[in-house]
Amino acid sequence: MIRKQARQRRDYLYRRAQLLRDAEVSEKRAKLRASLASGKPLDPSIANDKSLRKDYQYDESAPDMSTNEQLDLDDEYAQLSGIVDPRVLVSTSRDPSARLSAFAKEIRLLLPTSIRMNRGNLILPDLVKSAQSAGLSDIVLLHEHRGTPTALTLSHFPHGPTMSFSLHNVVLRHDIPGSVRGTVSESYPHLIFDGFTSPLGKRIVKILKHIFPPREAITSKNKMGNRVVTFKNIEDSIEVRHHVFVRTGYDSVELAEVGPRMTMRPFEIRGGTLENKDGDVEWHLSQYTRTAKKKNYL
After folding, report:
1. Cα–Cα distance list, 175 to 152, 254, 294 (Å)
2. What average pLDDT score do residues 222-241 get?
3. Residues with Cβ < 8 Å from 60, sequence gap 6 or more?
4. Which residues form the Brix domain (predicted)?
5. pTM over 0.70
6. Is the pLDDT of residue 269 over 50?
7. What b-and-e string marks burial along 123-139, b requiring 16 or more CB atoms within 10 Å of the CB?
8. Which CATH number applies to 88-284: 3.30.70.1150, 3.10.20.740, 3.40.50.10480, 1.10.10.10?
């Protein structure tokens, strides 16, 4: 089983590397074609690259797709997006406090198609192996420090990516003043992503939205649903809010916060699954960022 997973991982990485190489060449050739048509000067790295002109006359039928567009044809979520509802496992670090266990339950309610598992004494490789054997698509692992949730790790199966967030200002449902009490609605929520404009921000949006099941097209008011989950980027801090809404008029609604409420700050995106510490680092928050000039990554 381990050899099979390693072989599948190598095949995926090889196919991904080939696709990335072909996509970069295709993007450069598209810029070359546009420059020849408009007469504008090219970047010297493209203009002096003789290999781009090889078989150029036979490349006219190739679509002008950017690198990201070609990579989307074979990304990690191609087999899941819009076809199968994600099945997410929510768990915690070992020996969790009562507050972390309550937070894990609320994350389970936030994700409609997720399940929660008490970790017990399971080590990380065994936890990942049991999740994969059960046919789960993702795992959310919560961490704490002295009873306060401090980190969230999200990993996609079978080949990654794995994304790590630090958690701040975590407020549980019952600590939110005026929050909705009683049973939490588990209808498929509407998702709002605001402020994610950079390529890194769009990458994070893709990772986050695929742990929620897709909603069907709205054909009537009865199928509109009543939940909305908001991810708002404010200076690289992602504010997460969970509301239910009720229509009070033809074009007006009333919102009521359900919770939990938290702030997520990404600090690493890595290839591979949760237990694979040797995966390629796709992005990480650089050191000494706080002492340098402020830069917004998302």
Report:
1. 20, 21, 33
2. 88
3. none
4. 86-275
5. yes
6. yes
7. ebeebbbebbeeebbbb
8. 3.40.50.10480
CA–CA distance, 105 with 140 (Å, rounded to integer) = 12
Extents of the domains making up the chain: 2-74, 88-284
pLDDT at 256 over 90: no
Which residues are CB-neighbours of 214 under 8 A, at least 6 positions away? 81, 82, 85, 188
Cα–Cα distance for residue pair 224/288, rounded to 1 Å:
46
Strands of the chain (E only): list them: 88-92, 114-116, 138-145, 148-156, 162-171, 190-194, 227-234, 237-247, 253-257, 261-270, 281-284
Higher-pLDDT residue of 143 and 218 is: 143
Check: CB of residue 80 under 8 Å from CB of residue 137.
Answer: yes
Least confident of 80-89, 145-154, 211-220: 211-220
DSSP string, 48-69: T-GGGGTTGGG-TTS----HHH
Query: pLDDT digit string (tens) for 162-177?
Result: 999 999 999 998 888 8
Structure tokens at 48: 């002096």
N residues, the chain: 298
State how far the Cα of 172 lies from the Cα of 200, in Å rounded to an integer.
29
Task: Return d(Cα 15, Cα 4) in angstroms, integer.
Answer: 16
Pairwise CA distance, residues 184 & 259, whole Å: 10
Contact yes or no for 153/140 (Cβ under 8 A)? yes
pLDDT of residue 41: 74
Among 67-76, 87-96, 196-205, where is mean pLDDT lowest? 67-76
pLDDT value, residue 68: 54
| Mean pLDDT of the 82-106 span | 92
Q: What is the reported pLDDT for 131?
A: 92
Q: Name the one residue in this structure whose structure tokens are 């420059």.
A: 35
Q: Which of 17, 32, 26, 31 is nearest to 61 (CA)?
A: 26
